[in-house]
Amino acid sequence: MLNVSQKALQQLAALLLERAGLKITPDGYHSLRLALSTRMPVAGISDPEVYVQRLRDIGGEQELRSLLPLVTVGHTEFFRDPKQFRALERFILPQLLAKARREMRRVCIWSAGCATGEEAYSVAMVMAELGALAVEVDLWATDLNLAAVESARLGRFSVRRSSGISSERLERFFHPVEDGMEVQPTLREYVRFEGQNLAAPTFDAVTPGSLDLILCRNVIIYFDLPTIRALMDRFLVALRPGGLLFLGYSESLFKVYDRFEMIEVDGAFVYRRPLLGVARVKTTPVPMSPLMSPPVSTPVPLAVSPAGTTPRPAPSFSRLRPPDAPMPMSPAPRSSLLEQATTASLRNGAEPARPSRLTLEVPAPDPRLVRTTEVPGGAKIFPPAERLKQAVRKMTQSDFTAAIHDVEKLLIDEPGHLDALLTLGNLYSLTGRIAEAREAFAQALVREPLCVEARIFGGVAALQAGNLVEARSEFGKALFLEPTLALGHYLLAQVQERTQDRDGARRSYRNAIAQLRFPQRPLAGHYPDIPDSADAIARVARYALAALEEEGH
Fold first, then answer.
1. What's the predicted TM-score (pTM) here?
2. Which of 423, 427, 428, 454 has its CA nearest to residue 441?
3. DSSP code per residue over 19-62
4. For 275, which DSSP code?
């Protein structure tokens, strides 16, 4: 591990807070060391303090942006996202193991973006508990951060980082060392750690059609739209027909990439490579029964039932747009951070599909084990995305009280749901509850430290509260993280106008228009009065710029 002075770590932490709003406490300095170990050799610098100064100098912003995703490597944990791991433990991994044994081959799993190894070791523990031998499992764990990969190979974790592991698992799979726990050699045999850049054009180490499962969780939130689509192409080729892809809880391919099927496994949403290239539809799907493995001779195809959704009406943009500016359309409902291009698809008449439950074609399933989508009394259980969509519908109808109630209830059931947190913050902001809005956006940043949306909406809340200094700071941090975000430049210009910085406002409006040559993504969360499309942003920015130019003559 790179030897970094406390002074350099403090300087770097202060810089990250100043530029990106990323708060790193001394507990998180481990991730700073890992990030520096990767980026300093690339920059050709051996002294950490010199490197930090480079970041502060003119021209250092691009290097700082390269460093940021590596800094967040510390935000991982064992058995992260309980719903996903419950689906893995109870259904997916047992079936993959059984299928691989029938075909006399190994189960092939890729933990893509493994950070310091918690995810990979969690999967290895489950496989060992299922009775799989190390020779039956090819568990490949990779990360861009080579220092993190080396840390993962060592398999040493502090007491705090191993707190999510049950006492039984700690006793079986770890042994105590100074200041923490170390993975037993027998468990380490299940995993091979290597460096891998997911943005690379090819994966030379992956044989096409060889993988049963890819775990790429909380990684693609840092990628732009073209990179995501190219990565999904490579993942699709790497998976076997019927192979599964797990993304992070707040990540989605909705209207971003449509070659995977989206299915539900015991409450967790999973993407699957189609068995025959096209999803087969069942009219009455039967949800998977707990631990119901099919006979050796029975195939296990899965079915997806599509259903349509309706675009929401366009509300007023009166709070933020110039007088008499053309009315922009509002963003279409989304279920998580990366549902790109939704609005354009809906305006073109496309009907997005919703996932169905994972189903098995097995003879006469025991009706006592079949799960239903209803609760006593006939009330239906809706997935989080549908529940949020219902709340957003009330939001667009200005029924803010009911919308807040629905989103607060959703967050009780789904703590940390990023779209819900952002939407709740916006609802609080719209109803004047600014302190509560700030808290919601702070929680979103705990969930995703580089969340641009939390900065944008936090800035809007500050703008509505009349705190122009805070608004300018939040928009500046958002633009540092995503310089091509035209909406961020437009909102910054609004603040500059209000502070009589007309030259700055003109520059920002021009920047907003100039950035439209790059693909613009809809934001996570929902706010009814923000322009969402390139055309809408271009119209309001050009209108405001023309008004400023006219004032100057």
1. 0.64
2. 454
3. HH-----GGGHHHHHHHHHHHHHHHT---HHHHHHHHHSTT-HH
4. S
